[in-house]
Automatic annotation (TrEMBL):
Keywords: Repeat, WD repeat. It comes from the Eukaryota. This is WD repeat-containing protein 89. The keyword Repeat applies. Residues 330-374 are annotated as: Disordered. WD repeats lie at residues 302-333. Residues 360-374 have a biased composition (Polar residues). Pfam families: WD40 (PF00400). SMART domains: WD40. PROSITE patterns: WD_REPEATS_2, WD_REPEATS_REGION.
């Protein structure tokens, strides 16, 4: 595959500066798995089956919950609530208007380890994706009525995927549409108004690689990004038409941007742009705009971590971000210059892990355009 075109575009976003860092667990070898903004601050899930909540301005710990008995695989937040799922087979929902306790307000239990979940935009339907049941050779999606916590799933899909279901996403602009992604390499979209799986399945796209992350983007959530665990990136329409195939994103190292993995994607509605955070094993994060078959390097967040970054919560309009990594550390980034020097971590990613010199990028001879379909 041809080399991915990469240009430098630092003017796309205001620069972020490292403000402060905090350890998730003192004296413990605990990873930070994921981060998300809630109504009461930043929630971070750890490899010790604990979720902690932090002030998003200071990273001061505010509270924590320890409920799940196995690895927490995903966390989310909605207005007044926080949700988590786990290999213990549960999806749990906490009401943030009440004091956090060890027990969630609502729980939904399945017979399968849960890898992914989402709740529909009208808060009525919850869907979960399971690990492959090797005994029956099926991976299941269970659907619950959110208003009937503790009940059995209303229905189950088990024929769409043949391996772990790593991603579930409801379309925020079309409440009847849902997306799933799996390590079998398939992206599937559904009409969730249908309870029969064959009738519900709308489109199937074969990405050719085991999917780690996928999600909707675009003004009407009509596009899909697909990131594989081989660090390949593709863009699709929601009717399974391939728009762009970037191949292995790690090849942009040839342009002077060292990248070992993709960490997170964020769509900015006001700019109608898709952004990607891609990291190095040494802990740096490169922020890039994902265009139509090309990438634009915006900036690098350096010295906040000494290992792989797993969680990245990014408020594009607010101008701040929080990252969490395998070094057990959370780091806060804002547009403001730090009032005093922050003690950085030594990066092991080499001399190219900084912002890069201008000569490492192609010069721009024509104005940039947004991703062509929107």
């Amino acid at each position: 595959m041809a080399k991915i075109p990469v240009t430098r575009a630092p003017e796309l976003l205001p620069k972020l500066h490292l403000q402060t860092s905090a350890l998730f667990e003192l004296g413990g070898d605990v990873y930070v798995y994921d981060t998300v903004l809630t109504d009461i601050g930043i929630a971070a899930s750890g490899s010790n089956c604990t979720v902690k909540f932090y002030d998003h301005n200071t990273l001061q710990e505010k509270s924590k919950v320890t409920y799940h008995s196995d690895q927490i695989t995903q966390i989310q937040a909605r207005e007044n609530s926080f949700q988590s799922c786990s290999l213990d087979g549960q999806v749990a929902i906490w009401d943030l208007r009440q004091s956090l306790t060890a027990s969630p307000a609502l729980t939904f239990r399945s017979q399968d380890p849960v890898l992914s979940f989402d709740i529909s935009s009208d808060d009525r339907l919850l869907a979960s994706g399971s690990r492959l049941d090797e005994g029956y050779h099926v991976a299941r999606m269970h659907f619950w009525d959110v208003r009937a916590a503790g009940s059995q799933p209303m229905h189950t899909f088990e024929n769409s995927h043949s391996d772990d279901i790593t991603q579930i996403h409801f379309n925020k602009h079309d409440g009847s549409q849902m997306l799933s992604g799996s390590t079998d390499g398939l992206l599937c979209t559904y009409n969730v108004n249908e309870t029969d799986e064959d009738e519900a399945l709308l489109f199937v796209a074969n990405t050719g690689a085991s999917l780690a992350h996928c999600g909707y983007f675009g003004p009407e959530s009509q596009f899909i990004y697909a990131h594989s665990d081989m660090e390949t990136l593709q863009l699709w329409t929601d009717d399974a038409s391939l728009l762009a195939d970037f191949g292995d994103v790690r090849t942009i190292g040839e342009s002077g941007i060292p990248v070992d993995y993709m960490a997170a994607f964020r769509y900015c509605p006001s700019e109608q742009r898709l952004y990607m955070a891609a990291g190095t094993n040494g802990g740096d994060l490169h922020l890039l705009h994902v265009g139509a078959g090309s990438l634009e390097h915006v900036e690098v967040l350096a010295a906040g971590h000494a290992g792989i970054v797993r969680g990245f919560t990014w408020d594009l309009d607010g101008g701040w971000a929080v990252s969490g990594g395998e070094d057990g550390r959370l780091s806060l980034w804002t547009r403001q210059e730090p009032p005093k020097p922050v003690q950085p971590f030594a990066s092991s990613s080499g001399s190219n892990s900084g912002s890069g010199s201008g000569s490492a990028f192609k010069s721009e001879s024509t104005p940039r355009t947004r991703f062509s379909p929107y």
